[in-house]
Amino acid sequence: MEVRVLGEMTVTREGARLPLGDELRDTLALIALSGPAGISPGRLVEELPGTYRVTRTNVYQRVLSLRQRVPIVGGGPKREPYALDRARVYVDADAFIGGVRRLVDRPDPAALDRLMGLWRGDPWDRSAIARAGPWAEVRRARERLVELVLALDDGDRAALTRLNSFVALFPEDQTLERVRRACRERPRLLVIEDEIMADLRSILDSEFRVQPVVDIEGWNVVRESLDVEGVLIDRHLTANLTDDRGTTVIADFLRRHTEIPATLMTVAPPPTASGHVDLQAKYRLLEVVHKTGLGGALNETHLLDAARALVDRREQAHRRRLELWVRSDLFHVEDDQRFNPSSTDAARRLAKCRHAAEALRPVLIDGPIEVAVQQVSRFHREWGPRRPEATF
To answer: Are both 85 and 117 inside the same structural domain?
Structure first.
């Protein structure tokens, strides 16, 4: 059996919802919120609202009615506190309070997401027992959760997938105003797509400030004044899929002239894993995402995750992008050698580049991030597209 109070009060048994009137819901909510220790009949009388004075007899009758549906222990001649039989009943408030207590000072964003996901609405907006004492522990736990969210760095906070929906549950709650302010600055994302821009905007606009470009002419207008944190590019910019302008024109420009991370979306990804890896390295693409799923429907989850990865500010995401820079530069030095297979100079440069790339591995894995940035920048200046011997 499940009793959920973090939103609309619901009671379910084996998935089926049990109908309860307002008075029984209020009584059960206070019993559920009082934890394993329970709540005394006298305290229930004090906390329960009513248009007339609630008496011990009223409480007894309500609990008697509830016991026909829900396992409640306590009461009796000794007037023991009423409590739910926790061995038989799941209470979402228990899971929330206990989860918050177990959080460390710098929690994993996934743990915060799980706890925010327990909330389905604002129980204090409609409930007549909003001010009742047993809610105090839930309120304190929610305040603690909010403080931990605010203490996250921008990257970890941006990784929270449930934060916006959690805050939206409490539109009038001023205690969440600081979180709302922190959420307002959406990352800037350039999206280049010729056919389904409206569909993409429908899944991206809530999290990103999207700058839309629908054709190569639009790209030529914006390319010299780019002010975005990531680019999501359609591989083919003609309806018949005969071009590769998303890569040969746009992604290659970004690789050669900017530091902006890019991801390719396509209905025709490379058929092999090696082709996928080579395409990423050739154009310094963070990912190559299949634009559609089974049945031709838009692959919304993968596209949204790919967009989030482009603007992810966490350290591990930063390391991943640095590693991609090294892999892309090495790919093109290898291309120099492939186009000049008999050149001893090309072979020597390739060996030197491989040695330099290998030397970067330790700092890329777990060295100080500032040092990793400096060393990759130095590597890129020597081996990137502006090297004197560059073929491409």
So the answer is: yes
